[in-house]
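ok so for the tutorial part 2 we go from a plain amino acid sequence to predicted C-alpha cells. step 1 is just haveing the sequence, like this:
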Amino acid sequence: VTLAERAAFIRAAVQHASSFVLQELLRDVHDRVVVAVTFLAMLELMKRREIVVEQAEPWGPIVARRTTPEERAAAGTDSGGPDDEIDESLESFA
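step 2 — the prediction. this is what the C-alpha cells look like for a chain of 94 residues:
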C-alpha cells in the first residue's frame, strides 16, 4: 500500500460526501499498516491544503472535509493539488 493509493482513497471519499469521519472510513480495515499509511496520507493532504481535519475533543471522531477555494487562498497556496505526485521518499518527511 502506498501514500498515493491511500490519498486517492481519501480524495474519493471527499468527492462523494461533504465530509467523512476517519474511523468510519477505516471501519473494515484490519491491517495496521493500511491504517497508518491512510493517516499519513491524510496528513499529506492537509499539508497540501486539499482537506481540513478537525477533532472536537481528545479521542473524539476525526472529521475531514475538502478545503474551500477561500481557505486555500487565505493559506496562500493553490499548489499540491490532486494531479501533483506525492513524494514518498524519506527526505520528504524532514
